[in-house]
Specification:
Bound molecules: calcium ion
Structural class: alpha/beta
Number of strands: 11
Strand content: 15-25%
Order of helices and strands: EHEHEHEHEHEEEEHHHEE
GO molecular function, one term: transcription cis-regulatory region binding
Number of helices: 8
Protein name: DNA-binding response regulator
CATH topology of the largest domain: Rossmann fold
Pfam family, one: Trans_reg_C
Helix content: 25-40%
Radius of gyration: 19 Å
Keywords: DNA-binding, Phosphoprotein, Transcription, Transcription regulation, Two-component regulatory system
Shape: elongated
Length: 231
């Protein structure tokens, strides 16, 4: 999952980015409304944390411009404490949720997790595919209830695929959603990570769709067996 943080307060920006990166997300950052608007308009973010009070272009105007251009990613706005009018303007401009300053990073993380799973159509914080469960709160993966140890890159990849279960995800899409803009992106490494994930999980939930990408679905054995015509 790749996120954008737009916040002009450098310390706060650094804290939010560090918190999100610590939770396993790839994060890009912007320090004013123009830069933030440009990134959100051109890069495929899974969610955005957007401050309202920004230099050059305020957060409400940035959000309105994104929505007018059809950019639909979930947006969590940061509002000044007790500025209820900011919240109203923010929601009317297309915000999905808000956090009032000062906030605890845990609250931002929980709200971002909720936005990401809602955007992908999941109501629960725990995603399940056959014997595999992925707990988005704890960042843990288990197969048949047994914990599987994954690196942060492997977790990020599995998390993205499981958020988009049942849909073919191309390698290009994975690269765009797993790495921040400074990362040296090479879609060949995705194959390597998928191979490692398959070995560690030990169950066949990631199918390669030749020439298209990957599809996460429960293993064949769990599906209803097809009736044999010529038994
Ligand atoms: Ca600000």
């Amino acid at each position: 999952m790749r996120l954008l943080v737009v916040e002009d307060d450098r310390d706060l920006n650094r804290q939010i980015v560090a918190g999100l990166e610590g939770a396993g997300y790839a994060v890009d950052r912007a320090f004013d409304g123009e830069e933030g608007h440009f990134l959100g308009d051109t890069e495929p973010y899974d969610a955005v944390v957007l401050d309202i009070g920004l230099p050059k272009r305020d957060g409400i105007a940035v959000l309105e411009a994104w929505r007018a251009a059809g950019r639909a990613m979930p947006v969590l706005i940061l509002t000044a404490r007790d500025r209820w009018s900011d919240k109203v303007k923010g929601f009317d401009a297309g915000a999905d949720d808000y956090v009032a300053k000062p906030f605890h990073m845990e609250e931002v993380l929980a709200r971002v997790r909720a936005l990401l799973r809602r955007a992908a159509g999941h109501a629960s914080a725990e995603l399940t595919c056959g014997p595999v469960t992925l707990d988005t709160r704890a960042g843990r993966v288990a197969v048949d209830g047994n914990a599987v140890k994954l690196t942060s890159h492997e977790y990020r990849l599995l998390s993205y695929l499981m958020h988009h279960m049942g849909r073919i995800v191309s390698r290009g899409e994975i690269v765009e959603h797993l790495y921040d803009q400074d990362f040296d992106r090479d879609s060949n490494t995705i194959e390597v990570f998928v191979g490692r994930l398959r070995r560690k999980l030990g169950v066949d939930i990631i199918q390669t769709m030749r020439g298209l990408g990957y599809l996460v679905a429960p293993p064949e054995a769990e599906k209803k067996p097809a009736a044999r015509k010529d038994a």
